[in-house]
Amino acid sequence: MITTAMKWWQEGKFGLFIHWGLYSLLAGEYQGQKTDNIAEWILHDLDIPVEAYRELASRFNPASFDAESIVRMARDAGMSYIVFTTKHHEGFAMYDSQFSSYSSVKAASFKRDPLAELRSACDKYGLVLGIYYSQAQDWDDPAACREGDDGTDKDFTTYFRKKCIPQVTELLSNYGRIGLVWFDTPMYMSTAQSEELKALVKQLQPDCLISGRIGNGLGDYMTTGDNFIPLLPFPGPFEVPATINATWGYSKHDNDWKSASRILRSLVKVVSRGGNYLLNIGPTGDGTVPEACVSVLAEIGIFMRNCGESIYGTRPVPIYPYDIEGVYFTAKPGKLFIHIFEPQERAYLLNIANKPLRCYRLSDKLPLKLIERTTCEGDSSWLISLPPRNPDEIDLVVCVEIAEEQVEFEPIHW
How far apart are CA 297 and CA 280, in angstroms? Predict the structure, then answer.
């Protein structure tokens, strides 16, 4: 059941995550020492003194940051929403916070509010704005959580009352409609604290969605592990947060960029199982989006313009009884979309119970020959003749219009 508040999200399917903060200045290295973990955890992993890390703020002046070009890039890639890191675990506010002087406006040379600029750009280009907020871990605040803590020597309530609650309040009060709050790493937050945080969000913005990482099972949807895709269709709404390379924040050492083909296959796989795909970029310390991110998103955008119908507003089909290498299914009422990643001359499908009415390549509506017959084992089958692939056709999408509203599969005759 899709609620009104969740409708935009479940139909949008594809979003842009932005990890950007003081860690972007370090780019994965501090005083000649390279971090072996994800770049945005460098303060924690290299045990940098908080006082020394805070000095980065005075150097933070990303003159190349252009909110409008980032949002336009996301729109052109076929993305429906953006999630921006307003405060990561480092504790630095990437917006104009009235409850902390440690921010891009008050402490940095930048003196700008990137969240406000993204708000304006999202309004201009029609994308939904969401915010990431680290509600429990804050390595700048001695009362907050830190990985490895068990809470026994902490006054977490002080942090929760004096920083977390006030900052979430101002984020949901000062920046217009926020589509979702992407909470992260609840650590040892109590059920009562998670409930209070959820109640605050719903009080300020009743239609604002809450990620699964609020903790204690209180999210509006399930958030998977980073870059982990469920094996089978999930019974409820879910989202896969994913990276274009190996890290979230920018690292000059990480050039393991995923190809457009790999990312597109992951997107289709997630959507075919009923989920959303939230793909991250990590701008550099000066605000530039790495060229590898720009080019891969532009390539994905070509597919989305031609075949977005097979992604947006689709639903997962019942579990297909056979595993076909490189083939995934999405569906809408009266339509089955067959995503074919491996080059082949024909698609041979068994046990589909629907009556095919029309078959064509989705990108250009080229009619395709579909032969419907019964195998000698007694199973129904479709044999679809496929056209030669275009040079840049990563995913050849076949649309089969069916007589029935729902896609159904027949049992296998063993």
Answer: 11
User: What digits encode the pLDDT tens for the residues 121-140?
Assistant: 999 999 999 999 999 999 99
**Whether 152 contacts 144, CB under 8 Å:** no
Alpha-carbon Rg for the chain in angstroms: 23
Cα 410 to Cα 80, 229, 383, distances in angstroms:
35, 26, 16
Quote the tokens at residue 187. Answer: 């650590």
Tell me the pairing of strands 346-350 and 128-133: unpaired
Between strands 356-361 and 366-367, the pairing is: antiparallel
In whole angstroms, give the CA distance from residue 337 to residue 397.
Answer: 6
Q: How buried is residue 231: exposed, middle or buried, by Cβ count under 10 Å (0-12/13-18/19+)?
A: exposed
pTM over 0.85: yes
Phi, psi dihedrals of residue 133, rounded to the nearest 5°: -145, 125
Nearest CA-CA partner of 179 in 91, 79, 95: 79
Bridge partners of 182, per DSSP, are: 132
Beta strands per DSSP E along 49-93 = 81-87
147 CA to centre of own chain: 24
Domains and CATH numbers, the chain: 4-310 (3.20.20.80), 327-402 (2.60.40.1180)
Fill in the amino acid letter for 244.
Answer: I
Compute mean pLDDT per 10 residues along the chain, 414 residues long, and list them: 82 98 98 97 97 97 98 98 98 97 96 98 98 97 88 88 98 98 96 98 98 97 97 92 98 97 98 97 98 98 98 93 93 98 94 96 98 86 95 95 94 70
Q: Which amino acid is at 16?
A: L
